[in-house]
């Protein structure tokens, strides 16, 4: 099974290449339901809320390589949203929403007509699925806020209890970057609570990165991604040392 670091390298360049054709279509009578949908290993979040009549309002945020992003919002009517700006003066930007067995397939009706809403290394066309309630982006954000407030009060056992379900159950719904910080936050909390064994276990997925020389990391990712991965590598090294297992950087860069 590939490591989280290997998966991260792949996602830098293929963060949202989820085949919308892979989903099984549902009946045309089925309705898109409001909720928070997630795509691309947590890199895309689609929020759908009720609007007037039968319409729905959507907000879509996708993060691509080098921290390029897509940001779109509008009203969905009859499975489509017509946005004001288009990169092609002859073709409108029309975003389509197709209900599938595992979620919603989002696409653009005219190729690249909606690119004005995205950075050069980002695109929003992908499949979005409903995560478990406790792994929905808003729930994770609130849990991390509660964790920080509890940790700052030095209530380490309580802080650990807040973050453990996020690390254990939601990793598939988080970006690799977010997952790395959750694991590091949990590890240092376990250490503060007196459990160095658990601390080392939480950091294990990031040991490959921590052992990689900084210059190799810089060469493996686009600049903004590299800077964040370096921060994660350095945090993992510091936390592993605290937990009793100093990291040896591989001189060969592997």
Number of domain units:
2
Give the oligomeric state.
single chain
Per DSSP, the total helix count is 8
What portion of the residues fall into strands of 2 or more residues? 15-25%
Biggest β-sheet: strands ordered side by side in the sheet:
1-2-3-4
Can you tell me the overall shape?
globular
Q: What is the makeup of the main sheet?
A: 4 strands, antiparallel
Question: What distance lies between the first and last C-alpha atoms, to the nearest angstrom?
Answer: 17 Å
Q: List the uncertain runs.
A: 10-29
> How many beta-strand elements?
8
> Using only CA atoms, what is the Rg?
20 Å
Q: Can you give the mean pLDDT?
A: 89
- As a percent range, the share of helical residues equals 25-40%
Order of helices and strands: HEEEEEEEEHHHHHHH
Determine the structural class based on helices, strands and strand pairing: alpha+beta
């Amino acid at each position: 099974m590939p490591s989280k670091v290997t998966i991260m390298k792949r996602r830098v360049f293929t963060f949202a290449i989820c085949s919308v054709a892979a989903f099984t279509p549902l009946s045309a009578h089925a309705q898109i339901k409001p909720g928070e949908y997630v795509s691309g290993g947590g890199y895309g979040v689609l929020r759908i809320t009720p609007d007037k009549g039968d319409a729905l309002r959507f907000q879509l945020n996708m993060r691509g390589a080098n921290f390029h992003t897509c940001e779109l919002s509008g009203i969905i009517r009859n499975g489509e949203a017509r946005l004001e700006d288009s990169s092609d003066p002859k073709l409108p930007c029309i975003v389509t929403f197709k209900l599938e067995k595992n979620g919603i397939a989002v696409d653009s009706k005219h190729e690249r007509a909606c690119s004005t809403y995205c950075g050069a290394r980002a695109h929003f066309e992908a499949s979005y699925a409903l995560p478990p309630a406790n792994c929905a982006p808003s729930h994770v954000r609130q849990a991390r806020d509660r964790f920080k407030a509890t940790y700052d009060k030095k209530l380490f056992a309580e802080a650990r209890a807040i973050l453990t379900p996020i690390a254990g159950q939601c990793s598939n719904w988080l970006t690799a970057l977010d997952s790395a910080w959750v694991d590091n936050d949990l590890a240092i909390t376990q250490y503060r609570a007196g459990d160095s064994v658990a601390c080392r276990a939480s950091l294990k997925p990031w040991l490959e990165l921590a052992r990689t020389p900084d210059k190799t990391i810089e060469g493996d990712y686009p600049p903004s991604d590299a800077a964040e991965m370096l921060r994660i590598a350095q945090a993992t090294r510091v936390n592993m040392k605290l937990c009793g297992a100093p990291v040896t950087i591989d001189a060969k860069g592997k």
